[in-house]
Amino acid sequence: MLDELKNIWSDGNEEERRILELAVAAIHQKRERNSAFISGFLGLKGEFIDEERQSYRFELPLTPFMHNSGGVVHGGILAILIDSAMGSLINRSLPPDQYAVTTELKLNYLLPGKGERLRAEASFLHRGHTLVVMEGSVYDDRDRRVAHGTGTFIVLTRNGRK
């Protein structure tokens, strides 16, 4: 395996070397933040975008990992971005003994994802004790909305009861 990685690094093209760099970044981010590997591959770094912590944003550079064979951002990546922004917002708003997971996700793809960067934003639509409904969008670097979605999340306790 190590020889294969060395061969890719020395004989591969720029895109292939970039994928290896993303894999290393994903491993480092997993170790440092205990985040999902996909967060490292995507380079997700988030922040709250209002005073009351009612909305959340990821900004990230586009990488070869995100493109489909047509050269635009893969629809699954856009879904991950929206789901991750919504999930990050709700999970950062819960007490330590609770967490939320997606139970339903609905997306509309509006434009091809192109450019240098993407921005995913999420906010609450309804916040119940057990079910939370959220919305999220992804924008390109020209501030065009390329995807929009809604998601329902169930709030669980760490010991499995709710």
Task: Walk me through this protein's architecture.
- With 162 residues, the protein is an alpha+beta fold.
- The chain folds into 2 domains: 1-42, no CATH class; 44-157, Roll (Thiol Ester Dehydrase, Chain A), CATH 3.10.129.10.
- 34% of the residues lie in helices and 35% in strands.
- It has 4 helices and 6 strands.
- Strands 1-2-4-5-6-3 form a 6-stranded antiparallel beta sheet, covered by helices on one side.
- It is globular and about 55 Å long.
- The N and C termini lie far apart (45 Å).
Q: Could you provide a short overview of the structure?
A:
Residues 70-146 form the Thioesterase domain. By secondary structure, the protein is α+β, with helices and mostly antiparallel strands. 34% of the residues lie in helices and 35% in strands.
Describe the structure using short key phrases.
Thiol Ester Dehydrase, Chain A; alpha+beta
The domain tally reads 2
Per CATH, which architecture of the largest domain? Roll
Gyration radius over CA: 17 Å
Low-confidence stretches: none
User: Can you tell me the CATH topology of the largest domain?
Assistant: Thiol Ester Dehydrase, Chain A
- How much β-strand is present in the residues? 25-35%
Provide the structure class: alpha+beta
Helix content: 25-40%
CATH superfamily of the largest domain: Hotdog Thioesterase
Overall residue-averaged pLDDT value: 88
Most strands sheet: 6 strands, antiparallel
Instruction: Specify the CATH class of the largest domain.
Output: Alpha Beta
Termini Cα gap: 45 Å
Beta strand count: 6
Shape by Cα distribution: globular
Numbering strands along the chain, what is their spatial order in the largest sheet? 1-2-4-5-6-3
